[in-house]
Predict the 3D structure of the following.
Amino acid sequence: MSRWTLDDIPWERFDASKVDADLLAVAKAASLVERNGGDYATYLCNVFADDPEMQAAARAWGLEEIQHGMALGRWAKRADPAYDFEGAFARFAAVIKLPLDAVDSVRGSRAGELVARCMVEVGTSSYYTALADQAEEPVFKAICRKIAADELRHYKLFYTHLDRYVAREGLGFWGRLKVAAGRITESEDDELAFAYHAANENGAYDHARSNRAYVRRAYSVYRRPHIERGLAMAFKAIGLDPRGRLHRVATSLAWTYIRTRSRHLARAAA
């Protein structure tokens, strides 16, 4: 069960004067992706059908993801009373569908599935930490801090199960690296772009336009320490030294890419 509830959020501290429009836009998108956690849990339970321990972990994780979506959705509604959270989620869920009838991981193995889950938690933990550091609105800051802590705990959970399945299936370094790299490239796939569209835009969906709008806002909140910490967690999941020279080089390259792309998109939008 979740370690906090919606009643633990200090809603009475909400300050409309400190709501940032760009953070509100990405919060709306995130509310839809997180709210979809139940389907992800169903998929994981299918993949790990003969592993009750992993199934129990997936169900508990799914409930916490749904709660993240509900918290973000409630906050977004306070910041923008016109925001139709349930309507936006219905539009999102009608298009973004998971392979709920799958019995095998789309990553090729159960160990590969857990590498992918670790990478997702790396990204979300870093992202919500960055959002919390950027935000001035007190309630949004509190929500993001709670979600970031949950995502870090989820990473540790999936990493523990990854250790079990790497030992059982023998997924080597190159196999783990391939899965991790594939999952990173999916960070700009249709799920996030369409979530941004469903939550913030009217009219026909244009992936390139919605993706640019989302990435411009999302990348702008990152600072180098967020990238450094996230890559250390990613390196650990892949099987690399999270404190070595390669990690330092990767951090510099990733930070340069994110900063450059963020500036380019900001200039284009202006």
In short: The chain is about 75% helix and 0% strand. The mean pLDDT is 94.
